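Ticket opened by: R.M.
Priority: normal
Category: complex prediction / small molecule

The reporter submitted a protein together with heme C and asked that the result be attached to this ticket for the collaborator who will pick it up next week. Submitted input follows.
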Amino acid sequence: MKSLPQKIIFFALATLMGSAAVVLLLNECPAEAAGKENCGCHPHKAEKTFIHQPVKDGDCNLCHKPSGEKHPKVKAEAFLLTDSGKGGLCAECHERKDTKKYVHSPVAAGDCTDCHDPHQSENKYQLKESASELCYQCHDKNKFVRTFPHKPIAEGKCLGCHDPHQSDHKYMLKEEGVNLCMTCHDKSEFSGKSIHSPVASGSCDSCHATHGTGIHHLLKQVAPAEMYQSFNKENFALCFACHSDTLADSWRTDLETNFRNGMYNLHYLHVNKSHKGRSCKVCHDPHVAAQPRLISDKVAGFGRWRIPIRYTKTDVGGTCVVGCHKPKSYDRINPIENP
Ligand code: HEC
Ligand code: HEC
Ligand code: HEC
Ligand code: HEC
Ligand code: HEC
Ligand code: HEC
Ligand code: HEC
Ligand code: HEC
Ligand code: HEC
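Result attached by the on-call engineer:
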């Protein structure tokens, strides 16, 4: 015969087990369990570094509701989401992410859980992958591998330029055109006395492809990386896409260029050589320069030495002082002897 206290404990236990069984039969999450952390049975939903706030708070029932099916045996059907589980569920608590002009396709489809775990993750914002790998779950990584890569892309920092959800700019870009470039590049490097016309108009994309190309410096067309090479028009495809490709064709001209002494074409003299012809960048900066006609104030010398160039322009010609050499001048009207 059991003592009275034992009877009470036995009775209490039986009642508890009975109610647990009833709960299983009624197929509902125990009311008191729903209020408990992780529904009392799902501790694994809140153990990772980044836990969704309502999960952390144990408010499972804000997203899940019993369906009338058995739980936990027939797990999948036992609970319904309070909404379709698509964007609608998330929108119960979050601002919609599909209100701007350009919406990322999975966001438009309401597939928030393609990228976010609804409960927890080791990545910030409960992302299913680290920010640098996330995009490659759906976009082919090989398309972004380049011999000469743009640094943020090589580092997987797609979010430096793209919003993952939406934007008023095409391709969900965070900014448009040159403003995008200037979120990371220094604007002052692209302003100066003499500014190349496409740079002044902010058309960086007339020469550069942001995602890179097979060519150095993300260039859309070829321009020599070297200071000297044998002359071949194809080497200067970038410059000749906008400028006359006959600029340096012949030694005699009165039309092709202003860089001439009388009729003697000085572009031809410097550039058109079978050996050690100069690149345009020996004299011209592709962006901006402190001297007229985009003439750089320094050119590469031997090793690290940079040779200063001082250029002055006149109405009919100009004068160059390179390093410590004596000045050289040209004059289109009254050609200078031994220039
Ligand atoms: C913010 C909404 C939200 C909250 C809060 C939430 N869940 Fe979920 N849960 C979901 C969604 C959405 C799915 C479906 C997952 C999918 O389709 O990838 C899901 C799926 C599940 C699943 C089945 C799949 C799996 O991941 O194992 C379980 C079990 C689950 N939730 C348990 C819980 C528990 C326990 C809690 C409370 C600690 C909780 N959930 C809180 C949104 C939520
Ligand atoms: C019941 C309300 C609720 C629902 C439903 C909900 N969330 Fe949340 N979520 C929150 C709260 C609260 C926070 C914490 C808010 C904060 O810190 O600003 C949060 C935070 C987040 C964060 C992290 C924000 C940050 O700044 O760290 C992400 C990402 C997120 N939720 C995604 C989702 C997704 C995706 C869904 C749909 C699957 C969803 N949420 C559904 C309430 C909800
Ligand atoms: C293509 C992947 C992807 C999809 C799909 C996606 N997100 Fe995100 N989400 C991200 C990334 C990446 C971040 C982190 C952004 C950052 O670091 O600036 C983020 C951040 C967030 C944040 C926190 C910062 C903020 O912008 O408020 C919330 C909330 C959020 N997402 C909700 C949602 C909701 C709701 C949906 C579905 C409508 C959704 N996400 C769909 C990738 C995605
Ligand atoms: C769950 C799959 C998925 C993930 C993850 C994903 N994307 Fe997408 N993304 C798509 C789909 C689908 C399209 C539409 C493809 C198409 O139109 O060819 C798309 C299109 C795009 C576009 C072009 C949009 C346009 O207007 O043409 C950009 C930009 C983009 N994604 C960037 C990203 C970035 C950045 C990430 C990482 C934060 C990312 N995506 C992660 C599925 C995804
Ligand atoms: C430095 C800025 C920048 C970064 C970083 C960047 N993008 Fe882009 N992305 C752009 C610009 C600008 C466009 C518009 C088209 C163009 O100019 O090539 C674009 C277009 C796209 C497109 C649509 C057009 C296409 O080529 O299919 C996708 C998809 C895309 N980016 C995905 C990504 C992914 C994934 C990453 C990370 C690996 C990434 N982007 C990193 C600037 C960037
Ligand atoms: C998210 C930041 C970011 C944005 C936005 C950005 N860049 Fe860059 N870019 C960089 C970084 C970082 C480098 C490497 C700088 C270094 O190594 O000193 C770089 C280098 C470059 C280079 C030199 C590449 C080489 O091979 O040396 C070019 C050209 C370039 N960017 C053009 C652009 C253009 C054009 C845009 C606008 C469409 C742009 N960038 C937008 C971060 C950015
Ligand atoms: C007319 C063509 C052209 C335009 C327009 C142009 N670039 Fe360039 N850019 C070049 C060339 C050519 C190089 C390589 C120079 C070299 O070989 O040293 C270069 C190199 C660069 C570099 C790396 C070297 C450096 O100078 O820091 C960056 C960064 C860069 N450009 C950014 C930009 C940005 C941002 C814009 C728009 C404001 C822009 N470029 C517009 C032709 C151009
Ligand atoms: C996208 C077209 C475009 C490309 C590519 C281009 N330029 Fe230009 N360039 C222009 C325009 C437009 C002008 C202004 C023409 C005018 O004033 O007659 C100009 C002017 C110039 C000038 C004269 C500047 C002045 O102050 O009068 C020089 C020098 C020059 N470019 C050199 C180059 C070099 C070197 C390259 C190759 C690295 C190049 N350009 C590539 C469009 C381009
Ligand atoms: C040795 C230095 C030097 C080299 C190398 C050079 N230029 Fe020039 N370039 C000049 C000078 C100096 C002027 C200014 C002429 C004037 O207005 O008096 C000029 C002017 C120009 C102009 C303005 C129009 C004109 O012809 O007067 C363009 C365009 C130009 N150069 C393009 C190029 C291209 C493209 C290359 C490479 C194929 C190149 N330059 C190589 C020195 C050089």
